[in-house]
Design goal:
The chain is of the alpha+beta class. The protein is about 30% helix and about 10% strand. The protein has a single domain (about 5-205), classed as NADH Oxidase. It contains 6 helices and 4 strands; from the N terminus they run ααβααβαβαβ. α2 (about 25-35) crosses α5. It is globular, with a radius of gyration of 18 Å. Bound molecules: flavin mononucleotide (FMN).
Length: about 220
């Protein structure tokens, strides 16, 4: 597949056929993804291929509470789980919200489930002293995560970058036996897509690009 096509068509796939994903295919995907960049080329990624059904069920279970909050925040007109504005939603106020199964079942249903973690001991988190939520640490792991998804697409597979269970990270860390200085970054369910989606909905360049300043003249378009 041509790189432009891969970039423009890698969609969030949450339903798969029964077809298995071979270890050879998975190994090939990881073999290419390892060329992703990371701060100082420290390559702090760690991949866990989660096969144990009980572990997968526990990950799905960990997604329930934060997924319920996510939906309740959406219903309250908030940007779910945003770190810029306070939320009016609590576990109690969200208790009766129905969780969409697609936010939970993927961890159990997918032919392959990868847990992607990062060693915070090697990541340069240059924004760690700022008075806002850290975002730079993610820049040393999500290029790798995205490369896995792009390479999966190139192999005819589909997956989705998911994070919702990570609101319960302490539970997940003991489940996966992670050392303290590791963070859980994403769960990637992967498999052969049940159906294809090739026209992704994304805003145009001129909607997010300006010249010289945030409020500068629009670029593009
Ligand atoms: C940082 C991040 C976190 C995400 N977390 C979840 C998640 O927990 N569960 C889920 O089903 N999808 C999750 N997604 C997938 C997004 O919903 C999806 O990428 C987006 O809606 C675009 O979908 P599309 O490519 O099919 O248009 C996440 C995506 C990103 C980039």
């Amino acid at each position: 597949m041509d790189i432009t096509e891969v970039i423009r068509t890698t969609f969030a796939c949450r339903e798969w056929t029964e077809d298995p994903v071979s270890d050879e295919t998975l190994a090939r995907i990881l073999e290419h993804a390892r060329f992703a960049p990371s701060g100082g080329n420290r390559q702090g990624w760690r991949v866990i291929v989660v096969r144990d059904p009980d572990t997968r069920a526990a990950i799905a279970q960990a997604a329930e509470r934060p997924a319920r909050r996510y939906v309740a925040m959406q219903m309250a007109g908030e940007g779910p789980w945003n770190a810029a504005f306070p939320s009016s939603v609590t576990d109690e106020s969200a208790a009766d919200v129905r969780v969409p199964r697609r936010l939970v079942d993927t961890y159990v249903d997918a032919p392959v489930l990868l847990a992607i973690c990062v060693d915070l001991g090697v990541v340069a988190s240059v924004d760690k002293e700022l008075d806002r939520v850290g975002v730079i640490s993610g820049a040393s792991i999500y290029p790798f995560v995205w490369s896995v998804l792009l390479m999966a697409r190139n192999e005819g597979l589909g997956g989705v970058l998911t994070t919702i269970p990570i609101a319960n990270e302490p539970e997940l860390k003991s489940l996966l036996n992670l050392p303290d200085h590791y963070a859980v970054c994403a769960f990637l369910p992967l498999g052969v897509p049940k159906r294809q989606l090739t026209r992704l909905k994304r805003g145009p360049v001129e909607g997010f690009t300006t010249i010289d300043r945030f409020d500068g003249e629009s670029f593009g378009g």
